[in-house]
Each structure stands twice: as C-alpha cells, then as structure tokens.
Specification:
Elements: E1 6-11, H1 15-24, E2 33-38, H2 48-55, E3 60-61, E4 74-76, E5 82-86, E6 89-93, H3 105-116, E7 120-124, H4 133-141, E8 145-149, H5 158-166, E9 171-173, H6 175-187, H7 213-216, H8 225-236, E10 248-253, E11 260-266, E12 269-274, E13 279-281, H9 282-320, H10 324-348
Parallel strand pairs: 1-2, 1-7, 2-4, 3-4, 7-8, 8-9
Antiparallel strand pairs: 5-6, 10-11, 11-12, 12-13
Length: 349
C-alpha cells in the first residue's frame, strides 16, 4: 500500500516565505504529489510557481482543470479558483468562496480526504484566522496524517493555533523539520514501523499549545462521507439546485448573499454554509460581518451627507422665496441629519 503520497498544504499570511523554506528541504524525485493553497487576491498574478520552482528541486505549476496528477510535482491553486482533488486528476473551479477566500484551504483538504483517505498528509502553516481547520479535521477523520507548524515560530500564528485547538494532530513542528518528515512519511507504507526521531504534538509542553486544545482534542466523531461529498458537490456547483447543505438551518443569514445559513458541527467545531455554497467558520463569519457592517455604515454616511447637501439647497431656495416655515423645516431636518452623520463618523473613525 502507498505511504502518504498525497500532501496538501494550506497557508496564508507569511506563507510565501514558509513555502520557500519547506520546498528547499524536499528531495528531487519525491514519490508524492504536493498540492498548495495560498490565500492571494483574486485578480492578482501569482509568481508562486516560479518562486517555488527556483527554491527547490521539484517543479511547481498552476494546474489546469481535469489535469492528471503526476508524482514529484507541486500543484498550486491559481488565483480566484479552488483546487479540488478527484481520483487521478484535479479540478480547478470558481466555486463559492469559503472562509472569505477563493482559493480556500478547506475545499482542497476535504476533497483530498474523501478521495485518498489514509494516503493524505495535511499540513497547516502560518496564516491569519482559521481557514484549514475544518479541512485538517476531515483529513484526520479519514485516516490521514496531520501536521501543524509550531505557532510559536509562525509569522502569523492564528491558523496553526486554530488547528491545534480543534484537531488532535500528530505532529507540531518547526518549519525546518516539516520537509524531512514529509520525505519520510512518503516512503512509509501502511502498517509499517512508526516514525521515530520526530517530535509529536503529544510530547509538547502544555505551555506551547492553546489552553483549550487539551480537553477539546479528546472528542472524536466519525466523519460522514455523504456530507463531505455534498459539500464538495456544492463547491463544484454540480448538485441539484434544491440541495441543502448538511446540518440544520440557522437563525443567521449569509453575509455574502443574504441567503439562509445551515449550521454544521464537526465535533466541537461550528461552521456555516448557505445554499449557494458560501461557507464560513465562526472567525471568518465575524470578520465578514464586520466588513459588511463597515460598508453599510459608509453607504449610510454617504446618504446622510447627500441629505445635508439637499437640505442646504432647499433652505437657500426657501429663503429666496421668503418661505420662513420651509426654512425652519429644512433646518431642523438638516440638524437632525448632521447629528446622525456625526455619530456614524465617530463609529467609523
């Protein structure tokens, strides 16, 4: 049986530097395929394949949709597209954003776990917020190996800390040790001797991990492949239009499209997904709500400023016509509007 020859890596802020360091330590001809999601702006040009190809011996590229998987290569999700894995090929699609990103880490990890099971090794590196946590949990549930960069050395520790708080990972390592570990696990067969000489997460001091990781990681619930398949189908936008996400309807609405959200519990990890397919962790949901609120306040301030300008115009017109009552009416209207605008400015600034 193969070892862990499907390696999925997720990273965000600080990820370019981390990936360069990691690929430097990988050997030429590694008998595994590596798949990478790095959060990047949707309309930017990505130089990451060239950067990683120069940094290490393995060639890196943006794959095409339905491209065959070849060992010994690094495949990087292109801008504004999710990267999903199917049997012996990749899908590159513009599905709904997950955790405010496209590409997102969770869809890659989830599809790898469902398709390749115990052959998968999932790696979470530096990054903000918590994309990748649910995906890494899916890898764990399907029998794959889970690896997290030590948050104490990560440039942005949020993603590693979130993964450690919700997934009972096998290894928490400094970046320099992840490459050598990947090289070893690729060649380890199912049922082979356990790895030695690598620091597993269970041996770390409690001071190294988030406080809530210790009791939380004792809970395990079997994954539902049907639910995972449904979520992947929603991302691929190939499910019937009336397909509902797994879980139960929520009282909250989708901050992107306004649709009904479903609450999905992965053990103790709460997520949300709408019928269109937008998906949010709790952290990304709060962040998206904050952005939506700010946009709404700026829009409200613009309308209030226009009301003030219109009131000024009407006051001048009423004075020119000696309409004293209208002058008083529009002055009161303008004063009230100025108070509202001042309050919103205080909130925004």
């Amino acid at each position: 049986m193969p070892g862990h020859d499907i390696i999925v890596i997720g990273t965000s802020a600080g990820g370019v530097e981390a990936l360069v360091e990691l690929v430097k330590s990988l050997p030429r001809g590694l008998p595994a395929s590596i798949f990478v999601v790095l959060h990047i702006p949707p309309h930017s040009l990505s130089a990451l394949p060239d950067i990683l190809s120069r940094a290490g011996p393995l060639p890196a590229r943006h794959p095409s949709d339905e491209e065959a998987i070849v060992p010994g290569r690094i495949y990087i999700a292109p801008p504004d597209h999710h990267l999903l894995l199917e049997r012996d090929q990749m899908r590159v699609i513009r599905g709904p954003r997950e955790n405010r990103h496209r590409p997102a880490i969770d869809p890659l990890f989830r599809s790898a776990a469902l398709t390749y099971g115990s052959r998968v090794a999932g790696v979470i590196l530096t990054g903000a917020l918590d994309d990748g946590t649910a995906g890494l949990l899916a890898v764990k549930r399907q029998g794959g190996l889970t690896i997290v960069q030590n948050p104490d050395e990560a440039l942005f520790p949020d993603m590693p800390r979130s993964a450690l708080a919700h997934v009972d990972v096998e290894y928490v390592l400094p970046l320099a040790a992840i490459g050598p570990l990947l090289t070893r696990i690729v060649r380890q067969r199912d049922g082979g001797a356990p790895l030695t000489g690598i620091l597993p997460s269970a041996t770390l001091s409690p001071d190294t991990l988030p406080v809530d990781v210790l009791p939380a990681n004792t809970m395990h619930v079997d994954a539902s492949p049907k639910d995972m398949h449904t979520e992947i189908g929603i991302v691929e936008m190939n499910m019937p239009h009336d397909t509902q996400p797994p879980g139960a309807p929520s009282a909250f609405s989708c901050p992107e499209c306004g649709g009904v959200l479903w609450e999905i519990y992965d053990e103790h990890l709460l997520r949300f997904r709408c019928q269109i397919g937008h998906s949010f962790s709790v952290e990304s949901m709060l962040a998206e709500q904050s952005d939506t609120l700010e946009k709404t306040l700026w829009a409200a301030l613009k309308i209030l400023d226009e009301r003030i300008e219109l009131s000024c115009h009407m006051i001048k017109q009423a004075r020119d016509r000696n309409q004293a009552r209208l002058v008083q009416y529009f002055q009161r209207n303008m004063q009230e509007t100025e108070q509202h605008a001042s309050l919103i400015r205080q909130i925004l600034l």
